[in-house]
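quick one, 258 residues, struct below
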Amino acid sequence: EDVYQTKLIYTLINSLYRLKYIDKSDQGKYLKEALEKASKTNCIESIAIYKIIVDKAATDGIIDAHIKDSLNHEAQGTHTSNTSYVNDIWLHFKTNTGLVKILQSKTGSLESRMEKLSLRTESTEGWYDVLGESLIKLHRAIKSQRETEAAVALLGIVLNAFSFGITESARFGSMSSMFENIVDYCDLSHIEDVVDLVGDDCVHEALKEALDFAVKGNELINLANEGSHILHNPSHRQVIDRNPLAVIALTAQIVSSN
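---
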């Protein structure tokens, strides 16, 4: 649905800002455009999630109280389930024309990619390989200041982790509620706040394990420059298998430490 895609856009734009690929004004402009495009929905579940996104944007200082109220009011309107708005966001990335063109060609339709990801998770081995490749591509691209490759790798990781996390969260009860409330998947402090809000001991333990994994994993990437090695280690695979937060925390750690 459009609100879930808005979360991915929110994560991507904020990560590009953290990596200094776009400035503060562009960050605000792109996020406001994404929120405005996603505001037209009448699905009760979508409205609830959309309001969580708007609250996060207000907390981050992206929008003021007036705009927040206006967007929430618009969210009560007619449903416009049209994923083509994502491509409109790409067209407004004026900081790097090449980035826009390559992102459009590589990401295609987010809706169709999400459907394919649900099939990909059926093959655990394939999922690990794809994820390992994306992690190392993200790390190398950031170090080499290759903005386009970093953005594509980041989007791929978040899409995979989000899909896998939602699939696996059915086994964890409160984990599902946590994923619903996360807006920016590369904002560790935000994720910690969401976990506190859920207030479940199992989720707290999962976050602690994920943060420990992220720190160790980032150190290994920096030392060996081989992200796939992290996932090929049996003990690391066990962490990912039982904890959907691990990959998200590792990705956030890579972004925030560069």
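Residues 201-224 form the longest helix (24 residues).
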